[in-house]
Amino acid sequence: MQIHYQNAQQKTKITYGASLSASIDTSQIAEKHLVILTNQRYYEHFFEKMPTLFKKNQIDWYICRNQLYANTLEEWMSLLHFLEPFPKSKEYLFIALGNAGVVELTGFLQQVSILSSTFWVIPVSFQSYAQALIPQMTIQQKTSLPVLKQINLPKEIFVDQTMMTFQNEGKLVDLWVFIQTALLYDYSLLQRLYQEFPNPKQRQTNSLAAFIEELTQAYEERALEIQAYGKIFEEAFYLTQNGHLLSENMKRLLGFLLHFSWNAVVQDFPFHFENFYHWLAYLGFPLEIPEQIFMAEYLENVLNLLEDKRYLPIITQIGVLGDKKAVKAADLIKGFETYKHLSQFHLRRKPNDAQ
User: Fold this and answer.
1) Residue 30 near residue 58 (C-beta atoms within 8 A)
2) Alpha-carbon span 127 to 227, nearest angstrom
3) What is the pLDDT of residues 85-102, one digit of tens each?
4) Where on the tree of life does the source sit, at the highest rank (predicted)?
């Protein structure tokens, strides 16, 4: 199956629902020199599969660290050094076969490189798939602080779900991609996700592939807004003492949920918050903020990141993005305290309703 996707005047073709070998016509790229960008963990898993698929191609690998934000300035300079000996007379195919940071690094490279090239993405998770749908490809000076940006989308995205199923610990991360999209864009999708993933067993066994069209449509219409929601709150964890106690994905999750809690303070909307947080906890999402992270310092960092603008995007109701609202310290404190209260419920039973 295929989806033709467009965003920011960029276009990509998405092929899904089949194996990689069935989706890719290797005869069309027989003359291209492949450069596959990946993370160490994915290289170890796929380094034998790729040469079997691309039998007629010369293949070089560039291996990034496993961090979520692999698209750092340091990694970018290392990549440029790696590519220096490559002859300019060849045609290249740059393939992102890694996490979200690798997707951004590859997309940025293809847009600015003097090498004649095409850009593909083979997602290893729905998190990296969603990143491939965002037309902004950035390089970060520090974690999550962009200093360079290019507009680009891959020419093709090939989704082979069997390449995502090996990483059990990533299933929560992928499910969260769909939940946050539903909260911001599509309330009916949130209801369907609750029905499909009511408990940890279904979370492990049921597939997210059935929702790929809804996710893709949401990103086609509101990709940048979905990406931006929670970003300031995520970045503040990197600046806060003891923020290292949270993994990168936990910073992203909690950043979104703290933005969501502040949003509920400044914009009233009907929602069963307790049931929603019970559901997340029951599924295994780590919701508690370590006591070693102090609220006052963290919220000061949020305000400092906002600088003089002090406006953040809001939803006016579940699934409906609105405009921006002014940020006040008192509202941030109330949102933070509300979140801590809700997140400290320890679920001992199946929640009755997440709607």
Assistant:
1) no
2) 11
3) 999 999 999 999 999 999
4) Bacteria
